[in-house]
User: Which sequence fits this backbone?
């Protein structure tokens, strides 16, 4: 094995090994646990940085392990993988810092951080998987690693939520398995290939391929929370805030969306998908999810549930971008993978801060909170504007490219969806902002904790500020090399350019 | 019908008869006896059909098998009876409880 | 040592080592535990040492007493036998280590356990190595009787009644099998499997023998609807015994059925294969649903065994046309199920020891209090559900591949559905392990050995999914599935 | 096993019909067998010279299929181990016979030993052998047990267990002798075969007799005073 082949494995191990070590740690070893967590996160970030530089300069990072006869387990860090890798390793670091602050003094932290690390391991595995089988492996591992986080609190509500979460994800995984084995019996390979590997099949197999597409997308759509498979997501809100942040912005829903990207571009090929006639239904489904999620969000008083429905809506931008099947829309969809992550994680961090510091769980309790916690609410505001699509925050870039792409592909109806969605986004975010900044604060907060001069604990405050800043920078410097947008263009070129 | 076949058919009859008793009777002792009847039937088939030789001297191999089979049956019966006594001691009846466990 | 002696010690050691251990443990009651552990370690060593020579020389045949078939009894080892031997030795070692700790407080039961347990291992190994259908009858009887006696060791009305029912079923199965042997011998003049394979023809005697032997073995393997005896017996036995019954004993009769099917009956069976598959499918669904509605952990695990046995029988129809893929899949499932199910039953034993009960809804935060055991349960569950990477996943993948290659949708859906149901019942347990019970209970200490053994076996079940090629190559030694003869690994 | 549930008449008739079908099928199979079949007679005949015994059934039992017989001894031992694991004491702990029974048994027991010895010896040439001898020995043990004779406490522990396992043990050991002659397990050297088989049979019948008697006793003799 060359040195380059080791890098993907090291990326996996940088969270796997600390995770396993943490399981064995006694609850009281706070410092060692924190050291392991941060060392793992920093190592991963550094390794991913190396790969980013390498891939931009033409290196390939690939490792294979013989598995079944004719099938390998393979990890490969290509441009698309790196988009997701950079996002997840960056946000892991931030979330870890946040979680350390958030869970200070609460029980079972070794278990929590252990599964947290496994969760990230699975996510980077999903990102680097070079074929459907490896993808499935990490995809299922993600399900298993997140379950203990969802039921972490050990209440009856948490157990029920866990049950629902599993029912959806295991069912989805089973459909995917069926689709994957079927695909394998037809093609004899599962390797992700730019522009797909099924277009050569005899046209008599096209009905089978359409069914396989449906199986795979259904399986992935569960995690990506496409309607009607989204019900688990709001229920999973019983988990601690860092988990919600992780589920929504980095790991679970992103793994689903990323999988859809892989399937459309590198299993079927976007042009062949359009030929099969499966992209338009997918686009309509995504559009319906966007509108439905936003509509439901408006009527949630529970802040985390409102954010959850917002996630349902926002993740489908990615799917929409993919399903429009034009190069420009692809850029919009891919870049939203990163943008939505930055913005949504900020929002969840802020929600967690409000709950931890003031005991605020509901939108109706947020009157005047901007005065009590200005920095938190600044971050929240930035991210909310991003979600609505106001420039210069990153969300604007997404919507711009999606709109251009839809025009380019002649799908004008998408513009209506985008406009409606932005209005709805505004409808569920602006009242919050208005209440937080312009209403009088109540005499007492539901459950206030004292943090001295600062508005809240330092480990809780910095992460949302950093991610909010990142969301702004991603929007402002979208044209710079290595910006998410430029990277998404780099990928889109590979997927569409034909000799 | 040669005697060999007659023995074999008798053996089959015993086998099926034993099976009937095994299913129908509730008392464990009867079940154990039924199993012994079945076993005898099998041994009769095994040994009876060994007589189909031209010389009239039966094939010795099935006879050795029957001896082995009998010893196994004796051992199994001993264990079964012992177990039956324990079941009777523990539940007060030498029969299996009704089918609620199915 | 010259090769001849080496060869025969390779074939006889798996039988003689545990047998000698059993005799010594029987005579020297007070030393039974160290004797037992030593024999099982030696057994594992002997089986492992045998593998390289099989790779080098292909399948091995040993004519005991120098006579050779048809007069004498032959031992025969190919990849299939060795895979089963390895499974037995590994799981056997795990169960032995566990039992040593489990019976520490009840020495009388321990002294009764060891000879019976070593005889059970003897019987299994003799069964996996025998090439003679009458000899196989004797091994089946040893297997059945030792399993029954072990079940009864737990004492208590449940265990005794379970053992009694098990005994009757086991004896009935053996007699049906023996009648089949009688018919085959008198029809073809031999009881050697290889010779029978040459002579067998599609005629009434063969069909009758097939019916009798298959029915007997199905009864012993607890294939739906003949599974009724299994849950009460497996659930009421002592933990190490439950593990042995579910992991190993039912595999013995299943192995024999596969052997007979491949060598003798497969060609002439016709629609019977489909019937076996349908019963298997029914077992998958029925067993899983029953597992799901159980309120006691050990019964849940026992019904899970009923379901998993069903999976094994899906290979019978799927092998028609796809051959090695389907058989490899079923055997892979059997091997990883042995590891996973042992781990599960041992965990159940730990929980029983810990809380004094196995009511699922009252597990009361065992995730925190016995983390290692619950980790073992969850990991074993991963394999039972068939999620990657685990041995169970590989088995299901191969079965699915066999089903979909031929476009047999019905079987594929059963395979998938069974996995989803398995996930539901496994996570039912895991979910309750996180929550606080309304009936908090006294906690008894659980010896560390008992936790670590379960954990190690569960990890092994998962690792089976990462080291796939080696077990598959072992399985192919001597081409036991009789297909693709030209590409068989020699 | 549905004893009472099948009480319904229809179910009962169905069962009988099913069993009749099974019988019919099996009978058809038996009737379809060739009316004449030598089985393995000829091969046994041909190989008798290499066995050291002259009775074919004994040759099959102890030589050709000696391995089966070894396992069969294991089954007996196993049953005993099972019975012992079930019951700690014997139900015949304190039972005294009447005078008549006592005297008769003292007369019969030695006679039965003699008969057993004869059966054993005869087995190499005519019907008889280890199992028949062992059965008679076992019966002697049963008679003695019933008439109140008890194994001395000093012998009831490991010495008894040693006797019980001696049958299987001698089989294994004699089998291993072949190893040192470079032959296959359980292959007796021709010139020794007769003697070795007799040795195995002698010890095996003792073990079988002891096992059968112990099975009848139903519990470990040393477990009660």
Assistant:
């Amino acid at each position: 094995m060359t040195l380059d082949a080791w890098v993907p494995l090291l990326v996996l191990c940088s969270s796997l090994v600390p995770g396993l070590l943490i399981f064995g740690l006694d609850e009281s070893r706070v410092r060692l646990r924190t050291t392991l967590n941060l060392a793992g996160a920093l190592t991963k970030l550094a390794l991913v940085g190396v790969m980013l530089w390498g891939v931009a300069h033409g290196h390939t990072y690939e490792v294979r392990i013989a598995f079944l006869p004719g099938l390998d387990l393979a990890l490969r860090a290509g441009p698309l993988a790196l988009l997701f890798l950079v996002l997840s390793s960056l946000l892991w670091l931030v979330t870890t810092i946040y979680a350390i602050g958030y869970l200070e003094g609460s029980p079972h932290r070794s278990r929590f951080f252990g599964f947290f690390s496994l969760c990230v391991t699975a996510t980077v595995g999903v990102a680097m998987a070079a074929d459907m089988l490896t993808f499935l492996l990490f995809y299922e591992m993600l399900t298993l690693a997140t379950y203990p986080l969802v039921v972490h609190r050990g209440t009856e509500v948490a157990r029920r939520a866990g049950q629902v979460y599993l029912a959806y994800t295991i069912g989805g995984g089973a459909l995917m398995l069926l689709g994957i084995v079927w695909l394998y019996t037809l093609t004899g390979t599962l390797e992700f290939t730019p522009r797909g590997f099924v277009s050569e099949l005899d046209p008599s197999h096209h009905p089978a391929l359409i069914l396989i597409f449906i199986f795979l997308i259904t399986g992935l759509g569960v995690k990506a929370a496409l309607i009607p498979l989204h019900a688990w997501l709001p229920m999973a809100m019983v988990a601690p805030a860092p988990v919600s942040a992780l589920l929504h912005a980095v790991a679970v829903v992103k793994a689903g969306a990323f999988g859809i990207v892989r399937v459309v571009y590198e299993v079927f090929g976007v042009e062949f998908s359009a030929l099969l006639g499966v992209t338009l239904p997918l686009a309509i489904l995504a559009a319906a999810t966007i509108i439905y999620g936003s509509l439901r969000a408006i009527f949630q008083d529970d802040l985390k549930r409102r954010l959850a429905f917002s996630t349902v809506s926002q993740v489908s931008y990615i799917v929409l971008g993919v399903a429009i099947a034009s190069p420009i829309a692809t850029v919009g969809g891919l870049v939203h993978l990163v943008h939505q992550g930055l913005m949504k994680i900020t929002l969840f961090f802020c929600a967690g801060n409000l709950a931890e510091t003031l005991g605020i769980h509901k939108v109706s309790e947020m009157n005047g909170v901007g005065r009590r916690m200005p920095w938190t609410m600044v971050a929240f505001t930035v991210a909310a504007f991003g979600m609505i699509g106001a420039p210069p925050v990153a969300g604007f870039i997404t919507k711009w490219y999606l709109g251009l792409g839809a025009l380019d592909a002649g799908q004008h109806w998408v513009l209506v969806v985008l406009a409606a969605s932005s209005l709805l986004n505004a409808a569920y975010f602006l009242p919050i902002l208005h209440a937080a900044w312009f209403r009088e604060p109540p005499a007492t907060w539901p459950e206030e904790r004292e943090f001295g001069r600062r508005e809240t604990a330092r480990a809780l405050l910095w992460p949302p500020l950093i991610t909010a800043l990142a969301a702004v920078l991603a929007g402002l410097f979208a044209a710079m090399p290595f910006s998410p947008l430029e990277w998404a263009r780099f990928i889109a070129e590979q997927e569409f350019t034909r000799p | 019908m040669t005697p060999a076949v007659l023995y074999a058919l008798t053996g089959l009859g015993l086998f099926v008869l034993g099976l009937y008793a095994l299913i129908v009777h509730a008392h464990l002792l009867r079940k154990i006896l039924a199993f012994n009847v079945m076993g005898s039937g099998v041994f009769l088939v095994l040994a009876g059909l060994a007589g189909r030789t031209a010389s009239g001297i039966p094939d010795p191999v099935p006879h050795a098998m029957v001896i082995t089979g009998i010893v196994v049956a004796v051992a199994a019966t001993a264990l079964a009876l012992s177990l039956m006594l324990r079941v009777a001691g523990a539940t007060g009846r030498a029969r299996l409880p009704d089918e609620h466990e199915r | 040592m010259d090769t001849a002696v080496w060869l025969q010690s390779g074939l006889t050691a798996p039988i003689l080592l545990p047998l000698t251990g059993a005799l010594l443990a029987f005579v020297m009651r007070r030393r039974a535990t160290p004797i037992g552990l030593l024999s099982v370690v030696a057994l594992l060593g002997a089986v492992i040492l045998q593998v390289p020579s099989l790779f080098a020389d292909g399948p091995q045949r040993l004519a005991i007493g120098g006579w050779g078939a048809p007069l004498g009894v032959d031992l025969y080892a190919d990849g299939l036998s060795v895979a089963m031997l390895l499974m037995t030795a590994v799981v056997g070692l795990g169960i032995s280590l566990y039992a040593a700790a489990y019976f520490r407080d009840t020495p009388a039961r321990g002294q009764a356990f060891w000879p019976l347990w070593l005889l059970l291992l003897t019987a299994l190994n003799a069964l996996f190595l025998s090439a003679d259908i009458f000899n196989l009858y004797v091994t089946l009887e040893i297997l059945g009787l030792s399993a029954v006696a072990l079940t009864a060791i737990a004492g208590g009305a449940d265990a005794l009644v379970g053992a009694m029912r098990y005994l009757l079923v086991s004896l009935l199965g053996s007699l049906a099998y023996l009648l089949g042997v009688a018919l085959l011998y008198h029809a073809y003049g031999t009881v050697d499997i290889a010779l029978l394979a040459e002579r067998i023809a599609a005629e009434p005697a063969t069909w009758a023998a097939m019916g009798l032997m298959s029915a007997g073995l199905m009864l012993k393997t607890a294939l739906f609807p003949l599974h009724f005896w299994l849950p009460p017996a497996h659930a009421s036995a002592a933990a190490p015994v439950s593990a042995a019954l579910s992991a190993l004993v039912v595999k013995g009769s299943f192995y024999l059925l596969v052997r007979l099917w491949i060598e003798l009956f497969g060609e002439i069976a016709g629609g019977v294969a489909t019937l076996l598959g349908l019963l298997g499918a029914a077992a998958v669904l029925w067993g899983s649903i029953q597992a799901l509605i159980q309120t006691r952990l050990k019964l849940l695990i026992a019904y899970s065994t009923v379901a998993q046995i069903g999976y094994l029988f899906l290979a019978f129809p799927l092998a028609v046309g796809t051959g090695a893929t389907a058989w490899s899949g079923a055997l892979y499932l059997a091997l990883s199920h042995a590891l996973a199910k042992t781990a599960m039953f041992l965990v159940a034993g730990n929980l029983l020891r810990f809380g004094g009960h196995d009511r699922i809804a009252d597990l009361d935060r065992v995730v925190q209090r016995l983390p290692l055991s619950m980790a073992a349960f969850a990991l074993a569950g991963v394999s039972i559900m068939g999620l990657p990477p685990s041995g169970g996943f590989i088995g299901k993948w191969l079965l699915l591949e066999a089903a979909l290659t031929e476009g047999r949708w019905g079987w594929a859906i059963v395979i998938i559905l069974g996995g989803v149901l398995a996930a539901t019942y496994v996570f039912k347990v895991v979910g309750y392990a996180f929550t606080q019970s309304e009936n908090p209970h006294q906690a008894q200490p659980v010896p560390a050995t008992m936790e670590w053994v379960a954990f190690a076996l569960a990890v092994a079940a998962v690792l089976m999914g990462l080291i796939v090629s080696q077990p598959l190559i072992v399985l192919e030694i001597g081409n036991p599935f009789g297909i693709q003869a030209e590409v068989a690994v020699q | 096993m549905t004893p009472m549930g099948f009480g319904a008449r229809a179910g009962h008739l169905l069962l009988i019909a099913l069993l009749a079908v099974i019988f019919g099928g099996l009978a058809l199979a038996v009737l379809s067998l060739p009316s004449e079949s030598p089985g393995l007679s000829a091969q046994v005949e041909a190989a008798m010279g290499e066995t050291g015994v002259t009775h074919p059934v004994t040759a099959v039992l102890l030589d050709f299929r000696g391995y089966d017989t070894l396992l069969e001894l294991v089954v007996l031992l196993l049953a005993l181990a099972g019975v012992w694991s079930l019951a700690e004491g014997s139900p015949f702990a304190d039972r005294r016979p009447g005078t008549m029974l006592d005297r008769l048994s003292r007369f019969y027991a030695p006679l039965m030993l003699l008969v057993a010895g004869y059966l054993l010896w005869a087995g190499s040439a005519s019907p008889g052998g280890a199992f028949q001898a062992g059965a008679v020995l076992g019966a002697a043990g049963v008679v003695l047990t019933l008439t109140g004779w008890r194994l001395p406490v000093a012998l009831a522990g490991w010495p008894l267990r040693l006797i019980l396992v001696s049958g299987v043990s001698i089989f294994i050991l004699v089998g291993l002798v072949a190893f040192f002659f470079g032959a296959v397990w359980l292959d007796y050297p021709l010139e020794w075969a007769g003697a070795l088989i007799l040795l195995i049979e002698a010890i095996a019948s003792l073990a079988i007799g002891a096992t059968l008697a112990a099975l009848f006793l139903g519990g470990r003799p040393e477990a009660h005073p």
Q: What stands out?
A: Chain C touches chain D through 62 residues (CB under 8 Å). The first strand of chain C starts at residue 60 and ends at 63. Chain C is about 75% helix and 0% strand. The mean pLDDT of chain C is 91.
